[in-house]
Amino acid sequence: MRRHDKADEPSQPGSRTRRPNWLGLLPGSGRRSTLIARGLAVLLAVVVVSGSLAAYAKYRALWDGIDRVDVQADLTGKQPPADPNALNILIIGSDTRVGINGKIGGSEGISGARSDTVMVLHIAPGAHKVVVLSIPRDSVVPIVSCTAEAGTSGQTAQPLDQIEQINASYADGGPGCLWKTVEQTTGIHINDFVELTFIGFEKVIDELGGVNVCLPEPVHDPMSGLRLSAGRHHIMGAQALAFWRTREDLGEGDDPQRIQRDQFLMAALLQGLEHSDLIKSPTTLLGVIDTLTSHHYVTTDTGLTAEGMLRLGEDLRGISTESVQFVTVPWTIYTGDAQWIDSAETPTYGEPEWVQWVQPQANSLFSAISHDTKLPGATKTQVKTISPAAVDVQVLNGTPTADLAATTAANLTSRGFHVIGSPGDAPSDTYASTVIQYRSAAQLPAAHTLAALFSHVTLQQNPSLTGSALSLILGSTFTTLAAPSGNAAISNLAKTYGGITGNTNICDDSNAFAGPDGS
Question: Which of 101, 231, 301, 467 has the fewest C-beta atoms lying within 10 Å of its C-beta?
């Protein structure tokens, strides 16, 4: 049976029972499950992109005050290959109701936490490129095995025909479980995570001097408290908080559309910082960092160091807003019949807000990020891609699925690749991840060209290979080839996937406010 953990409701260790929809019952609370956490994720992106984390060298005591979680128990299995020239940070927005967070969230007594914001911050310092990838919190994903951490009970892997919403992996297994789920479903290697609660959002916006927003029409939302006329506004923390909360009475009322509005606000934050001296002020930086760290508003993994973030900040100093892209995983309404297990009532089935990723577009997006070759160190040995016609490849089936090698070989041929010999079986049929073997470093451009078509792939050097052909061994995680890489260049993701860049006019956001009839 398939399982679904309700996104807006608290998680009880060891329990799969229905949780009351308390958000909809609280006067004026306004279903705040997606709330302000994204704003704190924005702040992390702003700090990293602006290069301001150099301040950590001076304010090391603040850095040492950050809460940390050891996630290594969830990362003992096979991970996607890391790109030594890139950094991918998993940004988690947690809606914990502990302490004062409960007063802002609307119910201090509610236990547990959900990851109402899931973003991957992809940073390519040498190329001065940044991609902020938003993953809808209602995305359905496989249920992977996770250990108990950060006060959670952990979760047990389920068959592939059972799913959960992606934020349930965090509620049940903590940040390491969400990390593992994101890696296994996207093929993107995650280097570190940063988790942020929503309590600090209002104060940090005030520290930064506010942010500009632009509304195509007046908004009066009694649930979030947002009251603004049409046009541009410079808002401080309290109104920015209300902006993040607004959902039910605006536009479609769904999470993906709120992500659109969030992306415009992220762009506005970047533009404001780029055109001001605030981020260069040690006093301002100290106030922002102090707000995030000294009050336990931020948590990271134990492997994230101040020195590493300092080097990153130095690499990114002076990056332009035009070089920052905001994209959302291509999605559509979930069409399956996933069952939400309820121990007290009759099981219910897929609800309208569940979403699934559109393929092959989503895999192409993930591949463009995980195989970003336009990165630092532009030396003679830098890996480049080549024309598919120049790639010789032998296709082998490393799974029990019949004819997988033959159909894949045909698809590769239609994409312009030169398939050598007849498709056959690999020595073993137990491959999980797809493997591309190459004989020497001279074949890396060909290997990376081929790898761009797979979301879960490992490159392996095999000196025993002969000839010019790569050996492609298909794993069980492979389903279909991603879209041609030319449709998902890392430098053109925003345009390809309907996102925006950091220099976008923030008043061009009318679609983010449009209702079901387009108005």
Answer: 467
Which of these, 102, 108, 114, lies nearest to 33 by C-alpha position? 114
| CB hemisphere CA count around 21 (13 angstroms) | 5
**What is the distance between the alpha carbons of residues 109 and 485, in angstroms, rounded to a whole number?**
49
Side-chain-side CA neighbours of 273 within 13 Å: the count stands at 30
**Exposed/middle/buried for residue 166 (C-beta within 10 Å: 0-12, 13-18, 19+):** buried
How many residues in total does the chain contain? Answer: 519
Q: Do residues 489 and 129 lie in contact, with contact meaning Cβ atoms separated by under 8 Å? A: no
- C-alpha to C-alpha distance for 353 and 287, rounded to whole angstroms: 38
122 within 8 A of 327, measured Cβ to Cβ: no
HEC-encoded secondary structure of 101-150: HHHHHCCCCCCCCCEEEEEEEEEEHHHCEEEEEECCCCEEEECCCECCCC
Tokens found for residue 294: 């000294």
User: Topology of domain 22-360+498-512, per CATH?
Assistant: Aminopeptidase (3.40.630)
Q: Do domains 22-360+498-512 and 388-481 have the same CATH topology?
A: no
Q: Is this structure's pTM higher than 0.70?
A: no
Helices and strands counted in the chain (H then E): 14, 24
Range name among 160-174, 316-330, 341-355 with the lowest pLDDT average = 341-355
Topology of the domain covering 388-481: Alpha-Beta Plaits (3.30.70)
- Phi then psi dihedrals of residue 418, to 5 deg: -100, 100
Q: Tell me the two tokens of residue 216.
A: 């195509």
CA distance 508 to 497: 16
What is the per-residue pLDDT across 351-399, written as a single tens digit (0 to 9) for each?
A: 446 888 887 788 888 888 887 744 333 233 334 578 888 999 999 999 9
